[in-house]
Amino acid sequence: MQAEQFVVPPLGGGGGLSKRIIPCLDVKDGRTVKGVNFVDLRDAGDPVELAAQYAQQGADELVFLDITATHERRKTMIEMVKSVARQLNIPFTIGGGITELADAEALLNAGADKISINSAAVRNPNLIEELAKAFGVQFVVLAVDTKFVDGKNMVHLNGGRLITELETETWIKQAEDLGAGEILLTSMDHDGTKAGFDCGLLSKVNQMINIPIIASGGAGSMEHFTEVFQKANVDAALAASVFHYGEILIPDLKQELKRNHIPVRI
């Protein structure tokens, strides 16, 4: 599926739009992997097969993150994107190793609907602006990995291995001003713990900005999804292991959300 074939939801935090459920596939060496607090990775299956299953289950979108991306493996990712695009009828985002316009263009041309940038944007904030101007705001997702350090939410890079001097809230606001169309906010403190999303931080950020937020990090039960939509009013909730290992099935989750009066696409 090519990028121009689907309409991105209007910008704006919260609102009456259907809330999106997004499985995330962390890809390493062509396989889906999952860890806890960004370490201790274990295999979770073939990304193309998983993508097709999620589309059939009713996922609204998918996110693929090449967590150890290098330029040498860019060709591998492009082949995977082409394979996924042939299988899917829902939008999907690709992130990892995108450092310049040419990287993004290659992935979008291969069939990705949106691209996600993280470390490269921190190192070169102008990249956000360049991508937004070249491809449109709606194609640019800024991924932010945040951890609570000494009383502040701090941005981390390189898969969470490197702390920066950027405060999370400041960086997200700057990114919105530069042209980011969506924020994928992952709490490293909550990631893989299955103890629930960081509703406090998500709510705070959502009140600061006017672009959609995808909540990430901490999903362990259907109640956690209900909670993050009710308390933080995010636009989408993303999870990995609870979906990969069949602990939560997307049709069941959507029925549960519907019962709690949260608008979802069934």
Description:
By secondary structure, the chain is of the alpha/beta class. The protein has a single domain, classed as TIM Barrel (Alpha-Beta Barrel), CATH 3.20.20.70. Helices cover 36% and strands 27% of the residues. It has helices at residues 47-57, 74-87, 101-110, 119-123, 126-135, 168-178, 199-208, 222-232, 241-244, 250-259, and strands at 20-28, 31-36, 39-45, 62-66, 92-95, 114-117, 140-149, 152-157, 162-167, 182-187, 213-216, 236-239. An 8-stranded parallel barrel has the order 1-4-5-6-7-10-11-12, surrounded by 7 helices. α1 (47-57) runs parallel beside α2, α2 (74-87) packs parallel to α3 (101-110) and α7 runs parallel beside α8. The radius of gyration is 17 Å and the shape is globular. Residues 1-15 have low confidence and may be disordered. Pathway: Amino-acid biosynthesis; L-histidine biosynthesis; L-histidine from 5-phospho-alpha-D-ribose 1-diphosphate: step 5/9. It catalyses: 5-[(5-phospho-1-deoxy-D-ribulos-1-ylimino)methylamino]-1-(5-phospho-beta-D-ribosyl)imidazole-4-carboxamide + L-glutamine = D-erythro-1-(imidazol-4-yl)glycerol 3-phosphate + 5-amino-1-(5-phospho-beta-D-ribosyl)imidazole-4-carboxamide + L-glutamate + H(+). The active site is at residues 26, 145. It is found in: Cytoplasm.
Key words describing this protein structure:
single chain; 266 residues; alpha/beta; TIM Barrel; 8-stranded parallel beta barrel; 36% helix; 27% strand; disordered N terminus; histidine biosynthesis; HisF; cytoplasm; EC 4.3.2.10
